[in-house]
Design a protein that fits this description.
The protein has helices at 2-5, 9-66; strands at residues 74-76, 87-101, 104-117, 126-135, 139-140. It is of the alpha+beta class. It has one domain (2-140).
């Protein structure tokens, strides 16, 4: 008689183990998906930063060559296939004062580059903004005279 009362215990233990293993498997799949998404987002963030740096380099080249800001905010197209799909906007503002170092005068420019991929609300949206100040080639001006 004792055997008949214990006959269903193995079935309950087997069902419990199966449910526990199924939950553990589902948890591992979820963790793996989150990890892949995190790595993909980190890579996109690094690409956005490099796209913004490319915008800063473009703006710096224009400021140094022309000694003036490019007209208005400029959207630049990136030819690098790794940065394909990024939109980069570069804006420039000239400071109201000039910087003097001894007998040399510099124009100070504030460059801002904003790079983004996708639209706000998309799961893969990413953006980066970089602000820098650059100076153009110095103008020699005798001490005591204002910078031109």
């Amino acid at each position: 008689m004792t055997r008949r009362r214990q006959a269903g215990f193995a079935l309950v233990a087997a069902v419990f183990i199966l449910v526990a293993l199924a939950l553990l498997g589902a948890y591992m799949v979820t963790i793996g998906g989150v990890q892949r998404t995190t790595v993909a987002q980190a890579l996109q963030a690094a690409r956005a930063y490099q796209a913004a740096r490319a915008g800063i380099e473009w703006g710096t080249r224009r400021v140094v060559a022309d000694s003036a800001c490019p007209a208005g905010p400029t959207v630049i197209a990136l030819a690098d296939p790794v940065l394909n799909g990024f939109q980069v906007s570069v804006s420039c503002a000239s400071g109201p004062t000039r910087y003097r170092d001894g007998d040399r005068c510099f124009n100070v420019f504030h460059l801002q580059a904003y790079a983004r991929y996708g639209a706000i609300g998309d799961p893969y949206f990413v953006s980066r903004q970089i602000d820098v100040q650059v100076t153009d080639a110095p103008i020699t001006q005798p001490p005591g005279l204002p910078c031109p």
